[in-house]
Amino acid sequence: MQQRFIDKKVDRDWLNTNFPCMMACPAHTNAGRYVALIAEGEFEEAYRTAREPNPMASICGRVCAHPCETACRRGEIDKPIAIRALKRFLTERHGPESRHPVDVNAGRTQPKLDFRVAVVGAGPVGLSAAHDLALMGYGVTIFEASQVAGGMLYLGLPEYRLSRSVVEAQVREILATGDITLKLNHAAGRDFAVAELRRDFDAVLIAVGAHRSRDLTIPGVDLDGVYKGIDFLLNVNLGYRFTIGKKVLVIGGGNVAMDVARSAAREVLRQHAGGVENFEPSQGSLDAVAAREMMDVSLSALRLGAQEVHLVCLENREEMPAALEEIEEAEEEGIIIHPGFGPKRIIGENGRAVALEVLKTKSVFDANRRFSPTFFENSETRLECDTIIMAIGQAPNLQFLGSEDGVDVSPRGLIAVNPQTLMTSAAGVFAGGDCVFGPRLIIDSVADGKRAAVGIDEFLRGTKHPDPIVEVEVLERHRM
Questions:
Q1: DSSP code at position 115
Q2: Phi-psi group of 429: left, alpha or beta (phi > 0 → left; psi -120 to 50 → alpha; rest → beta)
Q3: Among 52, 247, 300, 452, which residue's Cβ finds the most Cβ atoms within 10 Å?
Q4: pLDDT at 112 (0 to 100)
Q5: Is 435 in contact with 208 (CB distance < 8 Å)?
Q6: Which pTM was predicted?
Q7: Burial of 257 (C-beta count, 10 Å sphere; 0-12/13-18/19+)
């Protein structure tokens, strides 16, 4: 059999049609190529293909929401290819967590530049940006408020979903990319101000994520035994002692948080020009993040010693934003789901929560598909419990930003940026991730970090990066 390669010039429409998996990935990882290389037994080359565009390949191989898999054309025939599982297979062979790691950055680092960049936050946005900036030759200093790096990858995801050793290995690999310094226990607003960083560094990236739980405004939320979902996960994942009752009730995120998140994102769109008005945040991402939180909280409570864990959410079972396999897994582990109910009030005795009163949901959306839940009258039901955890979504905490920083924040609490460069209203100060767009997928944060690195590089060097050239090799086989 004779083989030959031919060149083919293509446009974005052709790519979307023929490589929907790659175009669906925010980091544009060529999943089709590494899947094909795995089939040929070329595991190391497959790993390089998966890792080079994604500095968090090992993490994404375990917890990514895999939009590439959803877009896989094979799904039109039978089932999509298990792209995320195949990526994990590769990283377990050649990733930084493996016994035979491959250094994909060997020879890729550019000569050192005189510019220094400060990154506020060591989550997926900050780490991805630092990785790419270091490859470009920049000196990068990361300031992280916590005692560990990784952001919500370490602090928000339970151990059973993402091993801490994998996060630590990925962080070590990124820090070894080039001139990167990590400073833990350095919090913005407490230990430094953004304006101070701007004086000491040539550019600043704000990548603080969304580590604050959203509030639920119903009577009884201030009672003892009522906790916020993110606070609960942070305490558990950092190993702090957390006393939990035997019967735990989780108020699920779903569209309770979605309305707030969508409104916040749209407020940014409304207020700021430069093409932002044409940007539409991914509803799928918002749903996925909310679903993950309520499932993580429920399963963590079960593992922490609760005898019963109940989950209450507005949507009916078939409308729940969680993936069907996650719902079934939760039920198999013993979580009791109460779909189609909305919280009315928390009932207390002697200052402590003892029950949640709920109403049966009539509808979640109005005729225009806007979030506007309605409930059946006189449908109150009392659910007994010892502990209530409100997993209703996440929000950034931007109290560290002052007027002297010159960074515009919308009334909804999100940082405004230019959508192409991710630069804020303050020259040389950039921002990305959940503190800009609201809660999103991990791979979206990776893509934001990469985009911010390009924006910073263009700002500091004064030259625009050319549009990436997509090279497609078409292999033709001829039988002799």
A1: -
A2: beta
A3: 452
A4: 95
A5: yes
A6: 0.84
A7: buried
Residues 108 and 102 sit within 8 Å (Cβ to Cβ): no
CA 389 to CA 232: how far, in whole Å? Answer: 8
Distance of alpha carbon 334 from the chain centroid: 27
Please state the separation of Cα 463 from the chain's center in Å. 30
Contact of 303 with 293, CB cutoff 8 Å: no
Helix (H, G, I), strand (E, B) or coil at 198: helix
Q: Are 166 and 173 in contact (CB under 8 A)?
A: no
Strands 2-7 and 473-478, by their bridges, are antiparallel
Polymer length of the chain: 480
Residue 16: its pLDDT value, please? 56
* Whole-angstrom distance, CA of residue 479 vs CA of residue 70: 35
Torsion of CA 69, 70, 71, 75, to 10 degrees: 90
Using DSSP's 3-state secondary structure scheme, residue 396 falls into: coil
The 10 Å Cβ neighbour count of residue 454 is 18
Q: Where are the beta strands (DSSP E) in 20-146?
A: 116-120, 139-143
Tokens standing for 414? 């999100």
Q: What is the Cα gyration radius of the chain? A: 23
> Distance between CA atoms of 21 and 66, rounded to whole angstroms?
9
Q: Is 52 helix (H, G, I), strand (E, B) or coil?
A: coil
Tell me how far apart the alpha carbons of residues 77 and 357 are, in angstroms, rounded to a whole number.
46
Residues of the chain with pLDDT under 70: 1-18, 253-288, 290, 323, 467-480
